[in-house]
Amino acid sequence: MIHQHPRTMRQVVIREHPDPLSKIGEDVNQVTISGHIEHDLQLYEDDYGQWICRFVLTHTTTHYETGHWELQYYDVILYGARPFARHYETGQTILISGQLDRPASTHARPAIHAHTITLAHGPRTDR
Q1: Which pLDDT tens digit goes with each residue over 2-59?
Q2: Predicted local distance difference test score (pLDDT) of residue 9
């Protein structure tokens, strides 16, 4: 089911699993997060001709107990990235659905392997 959001997002795709109870007992690694594209993306082609892009997503989390906010950073990897690379803007608000990947190094940022990215209309205006 596709819904057009009236102001902020171009479209929202809603999918229902035919039998949501069939996943009980299995671990699920699915993340949906919004944020902003921090820097220009890195776009390259792998040995199999597939376009891949990497970029940094910034996401603001508010700590409700203290009222302070924290800026979090995620490395995002998107396969088949050519269409996205043509339409993105640095600073733009996006919504990502994908899988969370924690690098082996404890000092590295968490990564998101994106399955879908929804672009907002323009760059952020809050800062």
Answers
A1: 444 444 444 545 555 555 555 556 677 889 999 999 888 999 998 998 899 999 999 9
A2: 46
**How many Cα atoms occupy the beta-carbon half-sphere of 68 within 13 Å?**
3
Distance of CA 19 to the CA centre of its chain: 26
Within a 10 A sphere around the Cβ of 101, how many other Cβ atoms? 14
Task: Please state, in angstroms and rounded to a whole number, the distance separating the CA atoms of residues 110 and 93.
Answer: 19
pLDDT digits (tens, 9 = 90+) for 99-109: 998 776 777 88
Kindly state the tokens that stand for 70: 């924290």
User: What is the signed CA dihedral for 79, 81, 82, 83, rounded to 10 degrees?
Assistant: 130
Number of other CB atoms surrounding residue 46 within 10 Å: 9
Encoded tokens for 113: 């392997």
- Looking at domain 41-127, its CATH class is mainly beta
Entry pTM:
0.70
**Contact predicate 88/100, CB 8 Å:** no
